[in-house]
Amino acid sequence: MGVRVSTAAVPDGEKAAYLGGAVSRTLVPLELHPLGGRPFDGQLVSHRLGHVRVSTLEADAARFSRTAALIARAPRSEPQVGVGVQVSGRAVLRQDGRRAEVPAGGLVLYDTARPYAFDYPERFRTHLFHLPRRLLGVPEQDLRQASATAVGPADGCGPVLLPFLDGLAASAHSYPAPVGDRLAGSLADLLSALIAQLTLDRTAEEPDTPNAQLVRGVRRYIDRHLGDPGLAPERIAQAHHISVRYLHRLFEGEGVTVGKLIQQRRLEACARELARRGGTAPTVSAVAQRWGFVNPAHFSRAFRAAYGVPPREWRAGHGPGADVTG
Q1: Predicted confidence (pLDDT) per residue in 128-141, tens digit
Q2: CB within 8 A of 54, min separation 6: which ones?
Q3: Looking at 205, 222, 252, which one is the last position of a domain?
């Protein structure tokens, strides 16, 4: 069921609060402050496409702020990744100390778990896509590096991603659930690729060290071999021609051990696949084995410790039709 909200019939003095409340209920809690002197006007259209919330927002000049106080009021809310595609007007996004100016035809990525603010200095129209962060399967540090970076129609993944997003926004209301679920999965994959590219681009701009290069290489190696049950620190060290002791020393500054990183990435992959497939095949055991877990009991314990529910309950609660995006 879609959401359609307009301020056309709302008294002038209540329009901003009315639209701000609708955006907060449909997407995430935000504060809306009009930037122009004239009476404010706006509208919101929103639909759910599998795990993705697809919205189109049009309004007069305004600032939309997601403050630390708003985030703290709902500490258990599932973190969302958002993408804003600017159709008309300009947008300026601030997050993590960075500022991204997005012209019409461009996009920008943001994380709803951390404060951000969108400034629209003139009347604008934008498409907004929100989906659970867990579906992307990317490290949080990569998402931090990729957020608040403008991407134009000719930049990196822009030529592929922007037409896809435009088409999705125009037709999200028309897809049956099975098709919507698959399109949502495709969007998650494309956004993962975008984050990987933006992370590499930003890393290339920063001073590099041999240790940093080696850590990135180890992370890539782990992600490529998650399905191998024999993936272990000894094999990783051998593949990179270093000692196991040195490998562990490299990751002391990463805040996670190599063994924990392997398990974390495997669990993320399983959670992502189970959530996308819902109640359909393959079985939970087959998904676990595909991502390197050989002991079903160990997998179930590890999954419950990480996500708070057993894997079968996760699949049932995040399958098609489940309300996970808010």
Answers
A1: 999 998 888 888 77
A2: 46, 47, 48, 127, 128, 129, 168, 169, 172
A3: 205
